[in-house]
Design brief:
The chain starts with a strand and ends in a 5-residue tail after the last helix. A hairpin with a 5-residue loop joins strand 5 and strand 6. With about 260 residues, it is mostly beta strands. The strands form 3 sheets. Strands 1, 2, 4, 7, 8 and 10 form a 6-stranded antiparallel sheet that branches. The chain has a domain of about 140 residues: Jelly Rolls (Sandwich). About 15% of the residues are buried.
């Protein structure tokens, strides 16, 4: 094999690129023989990716005629995906060119390789026929796209419903004012006094009466006069009864 090496002579950007193959600038230090000159890089594309693509910048040189699809035994410039056991997972590019200038490789779709552990393998093969092939590679880019992350919309804070304020209103309720009518012992019209109508039961109910003024007979009340008349009449009745009994007794005595 002819080991690949960094080169500061040819570069697309930065300070250096990678050289593979048999560069005549190396002179007698490198023999023109059948050889592989390669670099490789482990890679894995996330299974969550929506797409993946690979691009790189290349400067191709060859002393043989350029062809787009050289056979496996001819000088060529390769880009291959290898499995971890170094078996071939896919050939991304196989050509033989002699551009002499930096060119960007069109994007190669790698979406179908999502979730796989792979080796990205760059190689230049020389068949040892005396004509040399080599290549410089720079700015290798793997672009992976993912679905947009949903933006979480914060829930609006709960709206506080104001508690209604209950205002007590003192509304007077019409009530009948009870009256108490009491007839005094003298039989006269009483003084009518409204009963207390407070919310609490009254502690005391005051009742006033005015006795009727009586008419006097002979300085006595009518009841007293009538009582004496009754006594006098009763006495006269008793006297009359006794007189009748005496008279009857005398009339029934023995005749002379």
């Amino acid at each position: 094999p002819v080991p690949a090496a960094y080169s500061g002579i040819e570069k697309h950007s930065g300070l250096r690129s990678v050289r593979m193959g048999i560069d005549p600038a190396l002179g007698a230090f490198v023999q023109n023989k059948e050889s592989f000159s390669s670099i490789r890089q482990p890679m894995q594309i996330s299974p969550l990716a929506t797409s993946a693509s690979l691009t790189w910048w290349r400067l191709d040189r060859s002393e043989e005629a350029p062809i787009p699809d050289p056979g496996p035994a001819a000088d060529r410039q390769d880009v291959i995906l290898l499995n971890p056991d170094f078996s071939t997972a896919g050939i991304l590019s196989r050509t033989r060119q002699n551009s002499g200038t930096w060119q960007q490789q069109p994007p190669v779709d790698l979406t179908s390789y999502r979730g796989k552990s792979l080796l990205l393998y760059f190689n230049v093969f020389n068949d040892g026929n005396g004509l040399r092939t080599w290549q410089f590679v720079d700015d290798v880019t793997l672009t992976v796209c993912y679905p947009p992350t949903p933006t979480s919309t914060p829930a609006p804070p709960p709206t506080e419903t104001p508690t209604p304020t209950i205002t007590a209103t003192n509304t007077p309720v019409p009530t009948d004012t009870p009256f108490m009518s009491v007839i005094g012992p003298g039989g006269g019209e009483p003084d009518v006094i409204p009963a207390q109508s407070d919310l609490r039961p009254p502690d005391t109910v005051i009742i006033k009466t005015s006795p009727t003024e009586e008419v006097l007979w002979f300085g006595r009340s009518p009841s007293e006069v009538l009582t004496w008349i009754g006594i006098m009449l009763g006495g006269l009745a008793i006297i009359g009864l006794l007189a009748g009994l005496i008279w009857q007794y005398r009339g029934s005595g023995p005749s002379s």
